[in-house]
Amino acid sequence: MGMKHRIAAAIVSAAAFVAPAQAADQAFFSNVAGVWNGPGEIVAGKYQGTKFNCSLMGNPVADAEAGIALDGSCRVGVFSQKMSAVIRKVSGDYEGSFLDGAAGEGLDITAGRIDGDRVLMAIERKQLEGAMVARMMDANTMNVTVSVKVGDSMVPVIGMTLARDLDNMAVGSVQ
Asked: What percent of the chain has pLDDT over 70?
């Protein structure tokens, strides 16, 4: 086989490897689209024990290989906090932000990957490093954990269990 054929074969092999991974990423985020509601708790730190309830709507992003935009709010007692996140895969890498990103009051997403029924995103804010893991427990239940790096360990600080709002499912899937 000549050099030209080996290069062409390598490109075809690489494309065959990338296409299923990209399709799997798109499928994961399509499954996450919709309206989600559920309780959460701060499990470590200054506000440990604080319970909250979130309502979020997820829609796939159009300007990326894969991704999702989440908007909604979380409520603690009578107080409500707007929540938003954008996760997008561009040129094979994940990027995005929670709220207004690390330049504001939020966090940056600096890397990520999809592994079957879960997504793992690296998050940063100034000297703080951590991870957000969202796992589909079944078609209508998602667990989300946010952990921060303390020394050599990852310490969970926020946990949530979100249920798909089946009454509003069609609204979340409209593109």
From this structure: 83
